[in-house]
Amino acid sequence: MSTYGSFLNLVVLGLFTLEVTGSAMQTGMVMAVRLTAGLVMGPLAGVLAGRHPRKHLMIGSDLVSAGTLVALVAAPAGARPTLLWALAVVLGCGQTLWSVSLRSGLPDTVAARDLSRANSHLVAARSVAMLLGLASAGVLAATFGYHAAFLFDAASYALSALLLAALPARRPGRGPARDGATGHGPRLPGRLSGIAPIIVAMIAVRAVDAFGSASHNVGLPVQANLVRPDSPESFTALFLTSWAVGSLVAGRWYARRAARAPQRGAALRFGAA
Known about the structure:
Layout: H1 2-21, H2 24-51, H3 54-74, H4 80-109, H5 115-144, H6 146-165, H7 188-227, H8 232-260, H9 266-272
């Protein structure tokens, strides 16, 4: 539900910003602020996820995101251009904190032998949420307007928080054994020096990926208004839905492979991809 909300507002926020400001430059800047907020939150999110129950961090992220979306809708028209910047910061920080809390909590919840399958299922679920969020964004905005789309988005975050509230809270390092037997697996800080080059390489890969994502997140609303000025929401939703379908198919394929065979050479395949 939270991922659904994130991809719903990814489309709606770009289109709404372009409509409110009338400027491709400001649309790009709002998106840049959102990404920068996520970048700044990244290291802090790791510290918070290592010290506090991740469930509480995820609930807080969802509720703050929902509240800011409601505030944007309720604000006077003259205040909305300013609130867009605040919304970009909140969504950027909240999405990063939520994602880090989810991913870092998985090894404390799932045995090491099941991590590949658990990750593949998370990717598949995320792809479904992505697909639904991208596909419904254009329909909601075109049919009911941007305000209704933002309120629906806020409701998805609130529902995510409600679902998380029903789960048991786990503090870092207190989940099931990392090795599937007893005790807790080796702590990351003790192994950091041995995997530092891998971390640097992954950061580089993610940086290149983020560059492409940022360019199309800004470019698509502009292109949609040029190609389909009568319904830019429909063009954007169709384009991104096609992309989401590819992600879903790849996620399900990997889930099947992870269930059938040990994941030897997974790092090499990841690098090649």
